[in-house]
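User: hey, got a sec? need SH3b domain-containing protein folded
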Amino acid sequence: MKRGIILFFSFLFSCLLNAQLSIQQDTIRYVMANLNLREAPNTTSAIITQIPKGTQVTIDEDCECKWIPVNYNGYIGYVSTKYLSKEKIECTTTYNNSTSIKYYTNSKGERVQSPTYYNSAPPGATTLCRDGTYSFSKSRRGTCSHHGGVAKWLK
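Assistant: Yep! Here you go:
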């Protein structure tokens, strides 16, 4: 009798664990481009922060909607679903023999793209550095400090 009860609860626990893992997998998405996290589900609402390309975000549920609430770095806001993918994407760009895009965590704990070479200002760039890279810095202090300083502020 005890063995039957133990087997039943073991089976039940296994089913619940598999269901939880399935739910967790369904709620993870990857950002396919530098993406604005907005206060409301439209392009005219205020931007809370920008989510870098390739970043993993959490959604409450999968839907066929145009906008969806996401949780990113403690911020909750809306993003367009056309920029989300179930598959993890590689974050590379081609400029002078395929340079990988790198990221750093700023003083506010946000993941920010490191200064990168582009032919023209990419979405989300805030500054053109003197060495020709575009910075995505969220504050002015220290921007382009390892890239010859600021050549031009974009925002």
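Quick note: The chain has two domains: 27-85, 92-153. Let me know if you need anything else on SH3b domain-containing protein.
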